[in-house]
Amino acid sequence: MELNVIQRLEAVAALQAIDSRLDRIRSIRGGLPEEVADLEDEIEGIRTRLERLEGEVGRYQRDISERTIAIQEFKDLIAKYESQLNEVRNQREYESLNKEIEYAQLEIQANDRRINMAKDQIAERSVKVDETAKHLQERSNDLIEKNKELDLLIEETKVEEDQLIIQSDKAQAQIEARLLKAYTRIRKNMRNGLAVVTMDRGACGGCFAIIPPQRQCEIRQKKRIIVCENCGRILVDVSFFPDRVEVAEPEALAM
């Protein structure tokens, strides 16, 4: 059955009253949800940095291990070549073996330098790993505390919030699609979530722009849906909001 204008205004005003109460409940939580989300993102970034640093330490450690093995292999070669020096039959073989020994010694020196450099890098990265791990623990503790605060606030208001969500869904079902779409769009664009407001001493209860006398009369007559020419909110007679606090208080959300 198609609703008349008064019924449509009553329905959208009732929805606004319910949604404003929901806004007020959620505003109690303040910026905690955003703080929790920001902390989670920060912790993820710190954890990624820690994993990168630990990965670098691991690579340097593997490099040291590989070069240590290489040094031992070159030492074994030197020992082998030195034993062969006693068996050379000519100068050319002697010089060839000496070149191999010299090459092996240079490789040992090069690997020693790289090992020392890797140890320096490990020491530097280890300091950063400790600092980053400490920072991660601190921020993780902060997240635990923030989650406790948020959980407590949610628990304190959960029953009422769940009831209001159900009421909001039911109220939306009573409103024609076109009007509901307009209400949702207006509400989304308003910082305080007010899409439906009353006249306040001849002015819009949302933006406080003066309403022309003819329009004031039309609002009181409740014969058609009137919107504020300045802010676009739906204007209704005060009789649609017996409890003015229900719609006036969310204005604080815009602060």
Shape from CA axes? rod-shaped
**Regarding CATH, which class of the largest domain?**
Mainly Alpha
- Please tally the helical runs, counting DSSP H or I stretches of 4 or more residues: 6
The total of beta strands comes to 4
CATH architecture of the largest domain: Orthogonal Bundle
Report the average pLDDT across residues: 89
Lateral arrangement of strands in the main beta sheet:
2-1-4-3
Structural class: mainly alpha
Largest sheet: 4 strands, mixed
The CATH topology name of the largest domain reads: Helix Hairpins
Order of helices and strands: HHHHEEHEEH
Beta content comes to: under 5%
- Uncertain segments: 244-255
Short description:
This protein is 73% helix and 5% strand. The protein is mainly α and 255 residues long.
